[in-house]
Design brief:
Layout: E1 3-10, E2 13-18, H1 24-30, H2 35-42, H3 47-64
Antiparallel strand pairs: 1-2
């Protein structure tokens, strides 16, 4: 992932900026999709959205240093 810059606006936050150039297969190889994540990924039909979804999880893994980080959603589907 071509990470361009990390910004630290506060002591407890990080913003990662990169140029998304990878294809779906490259992004999928970089993370492990368990059954739940694979099911969520399978619901997308547009390649652009698939790339975005995978890229967010790759970036989260990169910034946190952990493969176990999860995005939690509320009852309305908002992160």
């Amino acid at each position: 992932m071509p990470l361009i810059e990390n910004l630290y606006p506060t002591k407890s936050s990080i913003i990662g900026i990169w140029n998304l150039t990878e294809d779906i297969d490259t992004l999928k190889l970089a993370i492990e999709l368990d059954e739940t994540r694979n099911e969520a990924f399978g619901k997308f039909t547009v390649d652009k959205r698939k790339r975005e979804w995978l890229a967010v999880r790759n970036l989260l893994m990169h910034l946190s240093g952990s493969r176990d980080e999860r995005i939690v959603y509320d009852d309305f589907g908002n992160p």
